[in-house]
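Thread: Modeling a multi-component assembly for a lab meeting

Hi all, long-time lurker, first post. My supervisor asked me to bring a structural picture of a complex we are working on to next week's group meeting, and I have zero experience with this. I have the sequence lines for every component (223 residues in total). Could someone generate the structure of the whole assembly? Inputs are pasted exactly as I received them:
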Amino acid sequence: MIGDGGGNKAVAIEDSVLNNTVNDVIGNKNDTTLSAPGMDSLYGIAAFMAYYHVHSPSVVYPRDADPIVLTAGVEVLWGEAAFNRDTNQVRGSQIPIQGAPVPSGTRISAALLSGTGSDTAAIKIYTHEYPIS
Amino acid sequence: MANPVIVALPVSAWTKVATSVTAGTIYTKQTTVKLSQTRRMTGNAAPTDQSDAVRAFVDGGSETISASAPIDVYLYNHNATKAGSVRVDL
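Re: Modeling a multi-component assembly
Sure thing. I ran the full set together rather than chain by chain. Output:
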C-alpha cells in the first residue's frame, strides 16, 4: 500500500440515505438521535434496537377486563407453554412465549390443551411493543 | 472512475505515476524490472535519491493507494537498461 491508509475513511454525512459505499452503510454518529432512530445505517439501526428494545412499554391484554377463558382445544400459534395444576391451584405464573414481532392489528389466538379435555384456563396476554412492525 | 493509464518508467529514474490522489491502484506490467516506491504530499518536491524508497510490488502485482490527504506517487526503476511500465487506476 502507498500512503497512510486513510483513503476513503470519511464517514457518511449525517442521516444519509445513500447506499453507494461501505461508509454509507455504517453511517454517522450523528445519525438521527435515539429519540427518533433512523434505519438508514448500521448506527441508526443499532440505536433503534437498543433504545426501543430496552425502553418500550409493556402491555397486558385485556388490561382491565377479566382474563380470557380458554377451553380445551388444539391450536396454539407462535409458541407453547406448559404448567401444572392440582385440585386447588394452578402452579404456573407468567410464562413467556417468544416470537418475532407481528404487525399491529394481528389477531393472536390461543387454545388450551388439557389432559382431561374439560379444563379451562383464564389468561391475560403480556406483550412488548415495538414502534414499527 | 477513469480508464486505466499506462505510465512508462525510464531506467534509473523516479517517475511520478499519480498526482494528487487519495485512492487508486497501480499494477506492474512486468516482473523483471525492480521497482521502488515513495510518495510526497501533493505540492512538495519530487524525490531525488533513494533515502525513503521502499521496494514496490513485494506482495504481488499491485499496490493500493490509500491516503487521507492528496499525495503524489513515485516509482523508481532500478534497471539500468530496461524500461518498465505500470498501469494506474484512479
